[in-house]
Every structure is written in C-alpha cells, then in structure tokens.
Amino acid sequence: MDWANGVLKLSSFFAVTIGILVLFVGRRLNKMFAPLREFSIPEPVTGGILFSVLIAVVYVVADIEIEFDLMARDILLVYFFTTIGINASLKDLLKGGIPLVVLLAITIGYMLVQNFTGISVAAMFGLDSAVGMLGGSVSLIGGHGTAIAWAPRISEGFGISNAMEIGIACATFGLILASLMGGPIAKFLITRYDLKPDHKEQLDVGVADESQNGDGTITGFDFLDAIFAIHVCAILGFILNETIAELGLQLPLFVTCLFAGIVITNLVPDAYPRISGTKWPSRKPAIALIADVSLGTFLAMSLMSMQLWTLVDLAGPIFAILGAQFIVAIVVNIFIVFPVMGKNYDAAVVCAGFGGISLGSTPTAMANMSAVSQRYGNSHQAFIIVPLVCAFFIDLANALIIPYFLANF
Hints:
Blueprint (H helix, E strand, L loop, with lengths): L1 E3 L2 E4 L1 H21 L1 H5 L4 H20 L2 E4 L2 H16 L3 H6 L1 H28 L4 H6 L8 H16 L4 H30 L27 H27 L6 H15 L17 H20 L10 H26 L4 H15 L2 H15 L3 H29 L1
C-alpha cells in the first residue's frame, strides 16, 4: 500500500483480497435480487460494477484516487484458460470443427459491420472516421489491450490527441454492456424456444450444488493435482509463447497456455501412470472449481478497477456510438448467430458468449456462458468453440481489419 499526492496505490495482495470481497458481495446481491439471477448476470459483474461506482464516489467526494496493481489478475487469466485447454478433448474439437468455423465467419463479418457502425455514427457528429474505429473493433471486439496498442498510432496518424481516452472509454463501457447482455439474451432464447441441454454434462466452469463426483467432495489432493496439471501446461505455454515471439508473432500468454492444455490433455493416455496416482484431471470437479474461482476473481478485479470518472467528458459521442453498437450486437446475436449455430440449447449458450465477444472481452464471454450454464445446464461445445474463436482467431483477424479500415475509410 502506497499513498502519495492523493493517490492510494494498492498492491496485488490487496487487489486480490478486495477482488474476493467483490465476488462475495456480488454473490450476496444475486441471491437477494431475483432479476439478477433470472437474467444470469455474472456475480463478479454485479459486485464489480458496484465497487467501481463506490470508488468513483470516493474520488469525486474525497478527491482520493484508488489504483490497483493487477499483476495477479493476469495470472488468474492464465489459470482460467489453461483449465479450458485441459478440459478439451480431440474428439470434442473435431466435433466442434464446423460450428467453430461458422462462428468465426459470423464474428469476422460482424467485425466489419461493427466498424461501419462506429464510422457512421462518428460521421453524424462530424468526427473523423478514426474515432468511429476507436468505437468499433479497436476497443470493442479488441478490448482494452487492442485499444491501448492502437491509440498512439491513431493519435499520431490522424491528429486525435485524446485517442487513448476515447479507446479506453469505449472498451470500458463496452465491457459493462457485454457483461449485462449475454445472460438476458440467453434467457430470452431459452424461454421462447423452450430449450434444454440434450443431456446433463458436468460443468466446465464451477461446481453445481449437488454432487458431481459421487460423494460431493473435492479432497486437498484433488485440488493440488489440478493445480500441478495447470502449472505443467502453463510452463509449456510459456515456452511456446517465447518461441512464437522469436518468430515475430506476439500472442497473449493465456492463448498459448490454452493450446498447451489442449496438447497435453490429448497426448496423455488415460492409463498413463502419474506420480499423484490419479488420472489426468480433465473435466474433474477440482479443475471446474479452479476455473470458476480464477475467472470470477479476474473479472471482479477488472470491473472494480475501472476509473469511471475519466470517462465523463467523452460521454456524448461515445454513448451514441455504443448505443448503436449495442443494438447491432443484439440483432446479430438473435437473428444471425442463434439460427445459424443450430437454434438449439448449445446455440443459446454460444449467444451468451457472443454477447461478451461483441462488446467486451474473452473473459466476459466466458463469464456470461458460465452464469447461463450454472442456471440452465452446461454446453461443453460452447466452452470449446467460443474461447478458440475469441481468444485466438479474432486477434489475428482484427490485426488485418484495423489497418485496412484506417487506410481506406
């Protein structure tokens, strides 16, 4: 903890501690208010938005700015995506091949629509098309990371001095809208078409209240074995990430850890002897529990650390752009993604995830699907294809789409 010039800087230890508190508060609020449960609003979203508002109030009233060291948050993201890789079998990947390609094609098409929408609304305010791009795939599909990476180039190339602020503002409000969109869309589709899972599946993220492993318990060694497996995959993912970086391709660490989990899971035979004396922990309750805790804490820390007071001056045009993007995202989700993906329960869960992809981030998509799955039933197919689309292919596509639009519009 450090205090200087009206800024209170909290270390990773405090940030994680408060993140856990945010999760508890979000869980309590979701239990207290039925609409939050009915529309499958993720618990970290409920608590995270509340805390970000409280922190903004502290800033406005007491002129105290609170900053968090979020290094531990990024480690939690690596944990989460590694668990997704560990749960992915080659059989499921092959089964999800066609839906994955279809969802990727829809998403790339949507990215083009998203950029045209942002540019069109920006033009209505007499703003440069680059501002519309900042309110398009740069910050929404791309998220904070892509916005931060492209803002300096847009600022220099188009003379937009506040490009960074616009990009971060769009990414921040987009994250909130994405967090609130996925659950209600899935509920609408599930209720309207009376959808149910084809068969009961163990949750990919989280553990149901009733027993999933016979006696309803996860032993200390079950948990430790899962942690060990995650670390083994993360080490391979780190090596893979460094190797790819030397070849000139930069990928987020969590992406290579996801693939490392997939590779190891599908190379280790079930009967292979392990020092723990148990099988590889793919789809075990301990893995699902770690996935739930790491994702929830990551998202809680992301939302609670938003500095909402920095966005007030940019409200007008940004809200107009985001309002249009929100409407477009809902229309595409309900009238294109759902029917094309099969108009079944899996498609409804994918729509919850697409709500997170369209305006937010990969973790938001996963949190949306997790909230829906814990209420209505799991969709393993959705948890395979959505992270592969939005954690890997989207970044590659966006890296080509952004410079094309900036050069031609």
